Amino acid sequence: MDEYEAKPFDLVCNATYTYYELFINGKSPFRDFIDGIEKGSRDEKTLKKIVSYMDIFSPNLMLPKTKFRQIKGIGRNDLFEFKKDDMRIYVAMKLPSVFVVLGGYKGNQDADIKRLKMLLKGFN
Asked: Residue 55: is it exposed, middle or buried by C-beta count within 10 angstroms (0-12/13-18/19+)?
């Protein structure tokens, strides 16, 4: 059985929702993703833009599907992605909490969504 721990996600400053980084069995899949991003790279700029979407996201300001969408067809209704260009940040929403789980790229999206579903099998 997987062990889940939520730690404050300090990159996001949102007035409506509280963001957490989800650790599974002591490891953060999202942290593994961002540790691979080079400082000053295009990907770092894209990540910062996605974080800005997370900052402003609220019931009063819905983002277009080009920036945020629900992941459908996987047997859960609480999984979403924030996106910019080919980068994706996958979250589980248990409002008012948002759990940042995984990062990835469009080219690996199908595999990332399968991994996301597997990682969150015991997370309710």
From this structure: middle
* Residues with Cβ within 8 Å of residue 78, at least 6 apart in sequence: 92, 93, 94
At 94-114, the pLDDT tens digits run: 999 999 999 999 999 999 999
Contact 8, 20 (CB under 8 A): yes
The amino acid sitting at 72 is K
**Which pTM was predicted?**
0.96
pLDDT of 23-62, one tens digit each?
A: 999 999 999 999 999 999 999 999 999 999 999 999 999 8
DSSP states of 33-100 as a string? HHHTSPTTSHHHHHHHHHHHHHHH-BTTBPPPTTTEEE--SSS-SSEEEEEETTEEEEEEEETTEEEE
